[in-house]
Amino acid sequence: xxxxxxxxxxxxxxxxxxxxxxxxxxxxxxxxxxxxxxxxxxxxxxxxxxxxxxxxxxxxxxxxxxxxxxxxxxxxxxxxxxxxxxxxxxxxxxxxxxxxxxxxxxxxxxxxxxxxxxxxxxxxxxxxxxxxxxxxxxxxxxxxxxxxxxxxxxxxxxxxxxxxxxxxxxxxxxxxxxxxxxxxxxxxxxxxxxxxxxxxxxxxxxxxxxxxxxxxxxxxxxxxxxxxxxxxxxxxxxxxxxxxxxxxxxxxxxxxxxxxxxxxxxxxxxxxxxxxxxxxxxxxxxxxxxxxxxxxxxxxxxxxxxxxxxxxxxxxxxxxxxxxxxxxxxxxxx
Length: 334
Prior knowledge:
The protein is α+β, with helices and mostly antiparallel strands. The protein has 10 helices and 17 strands. It has 2 domains: about 5-150, Beta Complex (Metal Binding Protein, Guanine Nucleotide Exchange Factor, Chain A), CATH 2.170.150.20; about 170-315, 2-Layer Sandwich (Peptide Methionine Sulfoxide Reductase, Chain A), CATH 3.30.1060. The protein is about 20% helix and about 25% strand.
């Protein structure tokens, strides 16, 4: 059994916690890859320095395995090492790569391969920027495909847009109002929303799964995070929509969903968000549209955990799936 086949057997997908990115057959690879891409990824080849596609690329985006499309590196971790090859301080933290000893060519080196497809990527050395951990992942451009930021969502890689929040001057709103499937579905296509993801926030720990949260004793609420462009959509407008799409008068429940994980809550990220949240909540209360006291909690965001992949965009994948959310025709006044 060759090393790639062994890697695929001993590295379960659950370890990476991501979707599957299988390796095509050898015949498919020979048809889809250039000779240099095949040599680098399948035969552990090395391309020439300063004569490759990405060594001097500075655009924002994600680098994926040219073989399988598996996400590997972010441009945010790319730096100019002077080596003539693309260099990164680390892989994407939720994907990772596989490292193995390489004693070829009479040297002791550490080889880097993609976790799922087993593609040879390059090597990792200990001469990277000290402030970023001291590692230099020296990678062949021929092993990579670059996906720019504005193409991430179209390629199903929208979750990585959150990495570029600060650089692109985007903001994040984190809201809880019952089952996160319906919440996300009513927010994801609002003009000005860059991307959404569902998860768990407000609990006692930063390591939980759906089964843990479902017990109702971890302190987490099911939430949707909205990455938005404040030049096109205000935080206030998001909150006003939030108060129209769920019932903020029922304590720890939305229709048939009962438990603290289904509470109504706004998780603020800074003092500005807290101030707007308090103002909007008071405005909704004054309007009297809901007919009962508003019980929505305003809490600091803590311990956000992205939910499992099958929960993301659930109602897109399952159009007839369960939801207890609908948008009311309410005007909360000024």
